[in-house]
């Protein structure tokens, strides 16, 4: 896969407000790429600079090998699905989808065939004659997709496309979008604030905070090896424990509050390690409570149950261990023969230093 | 219950004088007084024969059409600018545009008379009235069209740009169709305002009076009062009709943009 989009040293100012800071990013052709971050982190601004609705203040945006500075959105090989979908309410579904073909010079029949194809692709075959305002949210979304994809852009930009849908519809559309992207082979860039959505759908994710890209990685690396505490706490749940690094090298020696001295691999410190005070993170599902009949764990620490949240398939425990102020969150699967503990019950927590990540 | 009585009393107070117009317009007597003496359509027939009235109506229609066009064009420009993101001094400028709405018309009239005649040395004509009427109608147009433009999702224009259109073609293909109901509504309301405006027309009228000025001149002759009543009846019917059409278009515009109605002029 070759690089299709390349951003170098991108800065964006709105007056005094610094919306994008030193953004460097390469996105490959055919990739499903997500921009993830809390609201106001600059992810939508970044998407709009690629689309051409905003020009960068400094730096370069290269698209398919061409510098895009000053190139209007109508002349860029990108198309966008807007958060509000922006379906033209005075036109029918077919007219909406055919809108981008106006300047293509194609014959009427050819256009009609392309519209049918596009509607078919998004599962709206036969909806062409409907008025746009008579559609449901999910259908509007599909029309917006068909309207953008009919132009066969090099890049499809999606601005929080699923945020207006209810949960069920959203999950269904996530799967459909992944399939669609594989079928058409077009690069998708998705903006979202929903980390689960990003993890499910993307080949790679860029996490952004305050106009800066904090980390770019595939979903698994991002989840398992966050480079900073900010990324670690934004993606999924994470327990943080104070720690002190004693020595660095291929193996890092550290002392973790409540757990004692441990040695971890250098790759468990993706953001690097320097001797001194820091913290380690461990995911709730990487910890477990020890029940009778379990295989003897490698390492255990005594604890007291502080809070129990029963979810049916899972039970979430907050437990306290000596020497740590904040309770540890632990996710336990409810399997046969495993009881749900009560608040105040003494227990033991099994842990493993291989699940630690230095942040 | 008491609230309903109050509401009825209020409506009677508002509309009783207007209801008297058609009553006496069809009354067979030159004196405006009860009891009514009989039914006649003579006064309407007299209207049809009065040449001076026809000239006044023609003047008024010309002025009203031109005013509606000018103030709506200015309104579209202002509302479009107002809906765009931000530019320096936007709030102040939008505020200043709306001021003629609350400015006493007599002040506008006197000021314009002085400027036109004393300062610029221009003669008075229909165009001086059109200019002045455009001044007082533009705030209404801006108010109506602001609603239409601000209800537009800015992503609509961006979507059109994104799909290959230029700024101008995006305006023509997407924005204009979506604000058309607002434009029609603005045309109708400014037409109506200009048509029955008296004070400014009275000050700035040249040799050819507008219809309201002509009506006023008729009132000096008691014998022609029923004729005025007949003319008034036609005008009231016409105004109600135009304002109703304007309101229908305004609501249709809201429905088209898919937003909630937050009340308009009617």
What fold name goes in the CATH topology slot of chain B? MetI-like fold
- Please provide the count of β strands of chain A: 20
Distance between the termini of chain B: 25 Å
CATH architecture name of chain B: Orthogonal Bundle
User: What is the rounded Rg of chain B?
Assistant: 22 Å
Number of strands of chain B: 0
Spell out the CATH superfamily of chain B. Answer: MetI-like
CATH class of the largest domain in chain A: Alpha Beta
Question: How many separate domains of chain B?
Answer: 1
CATH superfamily of the largest domain in chain A: P-loop containing nucleotide triphosphate hydrolases
How much helical structure, as a percent, in the residues of chain A? 10-25%
Give the integer mean of the pLDDT values of chain A.
91
Give, in order, the helices and strands of chain A: EEEHEEEHHHEHEHEEHHEEEEEEEEEE
Largest sheet of chain A: 6 strands, mixed
CATH architecture call of the largest domain in chain A: 3-Layer(aba) Sandwich
Mean pLDDT of chain B: 83
What percent of the residues of chain B sit in helical stretches (DSSP H or I)?
Answer: over 70%
Strand order of the largest sheet of chain A: 6-7-8-3-9-10
Which term fits the overall shape of chain A?
globular
The domain tally of chain A reads 3
């Amino acid at each position: 896969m070759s690089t299709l989009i390349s951003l170098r040293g991108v800065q964006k100012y709105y007056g005094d407000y610094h919306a994008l800071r030193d953004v460097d990013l390469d996105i490959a052709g055919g990739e499903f790429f997500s921009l993830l971050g809390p609201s106001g982190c600059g992810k939508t601004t970044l998407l709009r600079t690629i689309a051409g609705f905003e020009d960068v203040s400094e730096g370069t945006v290269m698209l398919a090998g061409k510098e895009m500075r000053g190139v209007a959105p109508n002349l860029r090989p990108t198309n966008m699905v807007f958060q509000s979908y922006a379906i033209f309410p005075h036109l029918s579904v077919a007219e909406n989808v055919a809108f981008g073909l106006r300047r293509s010079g194609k014959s009427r029949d050819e256009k009609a065939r392309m519209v049918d194809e596009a509607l078919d692709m998004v599962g709206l075959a036969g909806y062409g004659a409907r008025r746009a305002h008579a559609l449901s949210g999910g259908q509007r979304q599909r029309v917006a997709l068909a309207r953008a994809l009919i132009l066969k852009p090099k890049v499809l930009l999606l601005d929080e496309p699923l945020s207006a849908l209810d949960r069920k519809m959203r999950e269904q559309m996530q799967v459909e979008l992944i399939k669609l992207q594989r079928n058409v082979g077009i690069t998708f860039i998705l903006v979202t604030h929903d980390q689960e959505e990003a993890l499910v759908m993307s080949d790679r994710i860029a996490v952004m905070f305050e106009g800066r890209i904090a980390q770019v990685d595939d979903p698994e690396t991002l989840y398992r090896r966050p480079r900073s505490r900010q990324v670690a706490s934004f993606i999924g749940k994470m327990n943080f424990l104070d720690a002190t690094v004693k020595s660095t090298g291929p193996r890092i020696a550290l002392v973790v509050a409540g757990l004692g001295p441990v040695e971890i691999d250098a790759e468990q410190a993706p953001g690097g390690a320097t001797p001194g005070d820091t913290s380690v993170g461990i995911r709730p599902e990487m910890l477990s409570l020890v029940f009778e009949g379990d295989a003897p764990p490698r390492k255990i620490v005594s604890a007291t149950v502080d809070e129990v949240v029963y979810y049916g398939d899972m039970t979430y425990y907050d437990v306290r261990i000596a020497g740590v102020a904040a309770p540890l969150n632990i996710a336990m699967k409810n399997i046969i023969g495993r009881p749900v503990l009560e608040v105040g019950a003494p227990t033991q927590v099994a842990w493993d230093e291989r699940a630690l990540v230095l942040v | 219950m008491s609230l309903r009585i109050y509401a009825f009393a209020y409506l009677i107070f508002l509309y009783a004088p207007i209801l008297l117009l058609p009553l006496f317009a069809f009354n067979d007597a030159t004196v405006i007084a009860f009891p009514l003496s009989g039914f006649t359509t003579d006064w309407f027939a007299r209207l049809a024969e009065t040449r001076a009235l026809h000239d006044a109506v023609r003047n008024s229609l010309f002025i009203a059409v031109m005013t509606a066009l000018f103030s709506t064009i200015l309104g579209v420009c202002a509302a479009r600018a107002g809906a765009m993101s931000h530019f320096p001094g936007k709030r102040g400028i939008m505020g200043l545009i709306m001021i003629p709405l609350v400015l006493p018309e007599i002040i506008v009239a006197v000021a314009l008379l002085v400027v036109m005649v004393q300062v610029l040395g221009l003669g008075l004509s229909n165009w001086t009235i059109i200019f002045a009427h455009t001044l007082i109608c533009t705030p209404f147009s801006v108010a109506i069209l602001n609603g239409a433009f601000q209800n537009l999702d800015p992503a609509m224009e961006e979507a059109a740009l994104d799909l290959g259109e230029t700024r101008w073609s995006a305006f023509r293909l997407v924005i204009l169709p979506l604000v058309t109901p607002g434009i029609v509504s603005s045309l109708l309301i400014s037409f109506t305002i200009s048509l029955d405006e008296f004070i400014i027309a009275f000050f700035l009228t040249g040799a050819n009076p507008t219809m309201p000025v002509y009506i006023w001149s008729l009132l000096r002759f008691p014998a022609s009062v029923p004729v005025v009543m007949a003319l008034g009846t036609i005008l009231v019917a016409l105004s109600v009709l135009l304002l109703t059409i304007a309101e229908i278009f305004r609501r249709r515009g809201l429905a088209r943009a898919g937003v909630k109605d937050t009340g308009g002029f009617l």
